[in-house]
């Protein structure tokens, strides 16, 4: 129970109890209509909160995905009034002024420290007062930590100690949402998990990896297990190699100070790309129950041996075409060797995948922004047609972004009188196939899942452990400066050594593939 020492403050807080003046019925929420939901955004004054958390909440609110009895309370150390918070958030929110105002009316702010008790007591008083007004209703409290992980233990201790007093109404719950990075290596991640685990059981912890909230990542599960044609192909007999690629066409843009202590392997590969790998390679789960799915992800991740140094290429971007190099960023320490590019090949030691290279590639300041999965099949044996048989390979590409698409490169007869071959494609372009359909961003989906209590797209502790186990030895070598970091110009495809690694993985690039936008002249 909260202890509030100052009665005057308590009555003020009670008077200012917020709620959304939403008239929209929450018909498709999938949770109790009566739920009194309070979302606490800890770290509300920060970047993540204003860039991602609040806009995602506004999206859910605007589209009727939040229950009617909902309030959003920001909490952070910065002294700010409710109105100042609203002014700060306003430019980040979308929609008409009326809609934005409606959302912001339900957003209030409490300031307090993360390590003391006073702020948490104030917050607890607000929560309890609000829930008392809705006596008899089940209450949900979503504690969203938009904060650096270094303060998670303090914040969770404060929340647990002072803000754990839920009314005893059936269906009431408390959930804690945390953001990566979850540690710097296996040991520090385990220590953090241990500390949080003492305060909140796994069932209450929602670890966000926002790639799991992307449309095409969730689609992977369906493509793999709802289609008959994928099942017989999805193994070492048919698949030659797999590439999972993340590319950004911009550098650290002033975030270099943060990035420099992590590097691209911790920033993108250990989490997002390994999660994609698990979704791509796991066995079919018993059911779509979150734990059945996560059990399978853990199993496949545990079959992956730690990354070997000879299977790694690292890079760091340098200035080119008036674009600054990584170390030109004033927030980056001079002479830093932190990789902004990495390509790593891993192998899955199980019956399905033994010997198939999975190349995980991530880089900043490259030639394009793109995230995709490329499954390259083996060449057809005894190729009786003209052309280079090695290069005539089927490829299934799942493009996560930009512009979601799935295409299968297919060998066809080149139209005409001769029997000649060409590579064409079966092409599912989401913009064309689903015109006008808005594909929601990852954050609204994941926040909605956490409100619904669905942990399917959140990282379980044993998954996290398995992912760190794959990357930790190589990270220690990188940290020790024991691996070469190749320079690559800003805006290029990365260091050429990465293409050599890809070639060693058996990838064959077919230079004859000639893609035309729909409607343009074809072969
Ligand atoms: N629905 C749609 O929108 C469709 C679009 N297309 C488009 O057609 C174009 C060609 O498609 P696709 O063949 O799949 O993709 P790309 O030609 O872009 O790339 C194919 C693969 O080859 C690699 N690669 C590229 N250049 C080299 C190189 N010089 N040496 C070694 N490897 C290289 C790429 O790596 P890396 O990514 O690291 O450069 C990637 O793994 C793309 O722009 C694609 O978006 C095709 C079909 C459908
Ligand atoms: O987690 C991170 O992801 C972003 C890329 O996310 P996306 O949804 O825009 O693809 C990346 O820029 C950032 O460095 C990393 O920390």
From TrEMBL:
Domain of life: Eukaryota
Record has NADP as a keyword: yes
SUPFAM superfamilies: Glyceraldehyde-3-phosphate dehydrogenase-like, C-terminal domain (SSF55347), NAD(P)-binding Rossmann-fold domains (SSF51735)
Enzyme Commission numbers on file: 1.1.1.49
GO biological process, one term: pentose-phosphate shunt, oxidative branch
Catalytic activity as recorded in UniProt: D-glucose 6-phosphate + NADP(+) = 6-phospho-D-glucono-1,5-lactone + NADPH + H(+)
Record domain Glucose-6-phosphate dehydrogenase C-terminal: where: 222-506
Pfam families: G6PD_C, G6PD_N
Pathway: Carbohydrate degradation; pentose phosphate pathway; D-ribulose 5-phosphate from D-glucose 6-phosphate (oxidative stage): step 1/3
Domain Glucose-6-phosphate dehydrogenase NAD-binding stretches: 40-219
A GO-annotated cellular component: cytosol
Function: Catalyzes the rate-limiting step of the oxidative pentose-phosphate pathway, which represents a route for the dissimilation of carbohydrates besides glycolysis.
Stated family: Belongs to the glucose-6-phosphate dehydrogenase family.
Name used for this protein in its record: Glucose-6-phosphate 1-dehydrogenase
Organism in which the protein naturally occurs: Chlorella variabilis (Green alga)
């Amino acid at each position: 129970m909260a202890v509030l020492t100052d009665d005057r403050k308590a009555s003020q807080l009670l008077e200012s109890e917020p709620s959304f003046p939403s008239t929209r019925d929450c018909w498709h929420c999938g949770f109790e209509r009566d739920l009194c939901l309070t979302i606490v955004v800890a770290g509300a004054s920060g970047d993540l909160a204003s860039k991602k958390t609040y806009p995602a909440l506004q999206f859910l609110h605007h589209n009727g995905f939040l229950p009617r009895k909902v309030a959003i309370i920001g909490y952070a150390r910065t002294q700010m009034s409710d109105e100042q918070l609203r002014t700060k958030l306003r430019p980040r929110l979308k929609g008409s002024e009326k809609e934005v105002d409606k959302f912001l009316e339900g957003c209030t702010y409490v300031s307090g420290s993360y390590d003391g008790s006073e702020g948490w007591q104030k917050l607890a008083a607000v929560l309890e007062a609000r829930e008392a007004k809705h006596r008899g209703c089940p209450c949900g409290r979503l504690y969203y930590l938009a904060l650096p992980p270094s303060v998670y233990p303090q914040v969770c201790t404060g929340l647990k100690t002072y803000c754990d007093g839920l009314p005893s109404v059936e269906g009431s719950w408390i959930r804690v949402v945390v953001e990566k990075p979850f540690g710097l290596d296996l040991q520090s991640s385990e220590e953090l998990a241990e500390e949080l685990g003492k305060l909140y059981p796994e069932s209450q912890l929602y670890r966000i990896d926002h790639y799991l909230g992307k449309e095409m990542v969730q689609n992977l599960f369906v493509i793999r297990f709802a289609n008959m044609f994928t099942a017989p192909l999805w193994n070492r007999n048919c698949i030659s190699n797999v590439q999972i690629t993340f590319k950004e066409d911009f550098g650290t843009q002033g975030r270099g100070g943060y990035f420099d202590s992590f590097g691209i392997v911790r920033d993108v590969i250990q989490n997002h790309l390994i999660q994609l790998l698990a979704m791509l390679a796991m066995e079919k789960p018993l059911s779509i129950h979150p734990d059945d799915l996560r059990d399978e992800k853990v199993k496949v991740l545990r079959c992956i041996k730690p990354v070997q140094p000879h299977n790694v290429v690292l890079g760091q971007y340098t200035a080119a075409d008036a674009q600054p190099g990584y170390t030109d960023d004033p927030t980056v320490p001079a002479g830093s060797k932190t990789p902004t590019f990495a390509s790593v090949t891993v192998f899955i030691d199980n019956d399905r995948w033994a010997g198939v290279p999975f190349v995980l590639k991530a880089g900043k300041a490259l030639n394009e922004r793109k995230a995709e999965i490329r499954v390259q099949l083996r060449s057809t044996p005894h190729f009786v047609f003209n052309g280079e048989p090695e290069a005539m390979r089927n490829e299934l590409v799942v493009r996560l972004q930009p512009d979601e698409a799935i295409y299968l490169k297919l060998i066809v007869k080149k139209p005409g009188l001769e029997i000649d071959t060409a590579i064409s494609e079966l092409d599912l372009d989401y913009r064309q196939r689903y015109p006008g359909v808005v594909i929601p961003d990852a954050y609204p989906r994941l926040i909605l899942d956490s409100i619904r209590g669905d942990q399917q797209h959140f990282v379980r502790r044993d998954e996290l452990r398995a992912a760190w186990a794959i990357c930790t030895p190589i990270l220690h070598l990188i940290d020790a400066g024991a691996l070469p970091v190749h320079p690559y110009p800003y805006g290029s495809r990365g260091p050429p050594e990465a293409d050599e690694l890809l070639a060693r993985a058996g990838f064959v690039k077919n230079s004859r593939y000639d893609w035309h936008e729909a409607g343009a002249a074809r072969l």
